[in-house]
Design a protein that fits this description.
The complex is a heterodimer of chains A (150) and B (176).
Chain A lengths: L8 H24 L7 H19 L4 H10 L4 H15 L17 H41 L1
Helix pairs in contact in A: 1-2, 2-3, 2-5, 3-5, 4-5
Chain B lengths: L1 H21 L3 H22 L2 H24 L15 H18 L11 H4 L2 H12 L4 H9 L1 H22 L5
Classes of the chains: A mainly alpha (150), B mainly alpha (176).
Amino acid sequence: MIHTGHESMIVRRSAALVIPLVQLFGLYVLFFGQYGPGGGFVGGVMLAASLIAGILVFGPDGQPAATAKKLLKTDGLGLLIFAGVGGLCLIGGGAFLNYSSMQLPGLDDPTRRYLGIVLTQIGVAADIAVAAVSIVFSLYSASSNEVSDG
Amino acid sequence: MTYSFELLLLVLLILTAGGAIVVKDLISAVVILGSYSFFLALVWAWLGAVDVAFVEAVVGAGLATVFFLLTLFGTAPKDTLIRRTPPPIAAVIALPLLGLLLLYAADDLPAFGDLQAPASVHVSPFYLENSFSDTHTPNVVTAVLMDYRALDTMMETAVIFTAGIACWLILRRRVS
């Protein structure tokens, strides 16, 4: 029942309308996390949720699922970004994840920390989005074999 | 005024939590759990923990529900109906007693918003006073999570990465 996507015209059209809005709001939450509630975790989950909605509505052969499958190849990239920012701080001569020792010319300490927070939040969001989408694909592959076995 | 709204939320929380346990069909239980998460998010927002409320609404009510439903769709229809055995007598006697004990202990907790509470005199004043000048980040929660406690957050990210990998390794079937 969930392996073909949804046939209803209403569901497909409304999903096509809502999914870009969810993605936009997810990006807003991700980058507005320093000024209001939100941040990398919630933003990543919302980006993943938009992809998951696309997979559920348009089926595992649809366009969102193809995008999500390409995205799965970047698993671990988010963690790499986070740890890489920490490594940049090490190279700059400071403690791990002490953003003020990133070697960026022309910036004062608070601005470096601000930039470090933005970069690590992008890392968290990428990690969580890919992890959530990969769990959905795992559940799909588990259930699809159940169906073909039974 | 405020008290009545809190009471309403608390009643709804208990109703949805109990409903998720009592209901016979697992899919209904999952949907009721989603509404429970939503009411819990309202409680967090009411208490001023907006970031926690956001996470609860998105993850608890959204993502977890989808995961549960996908798992249920992978099972046979007979698995979604549950036969319940009556709880053991010892649990029926012991759990209300434990609840009373916890209520008795809750009397010693500091009042909500107490300025002299241990949580608000230790490191919170430092964060509240310095986080903006240190990081130019108005949201103190983000500054603490992503800068002062960045190593913890990195390990949390590693945990989620590991969870995704582990699900893939356990659930993936070889495509022949």
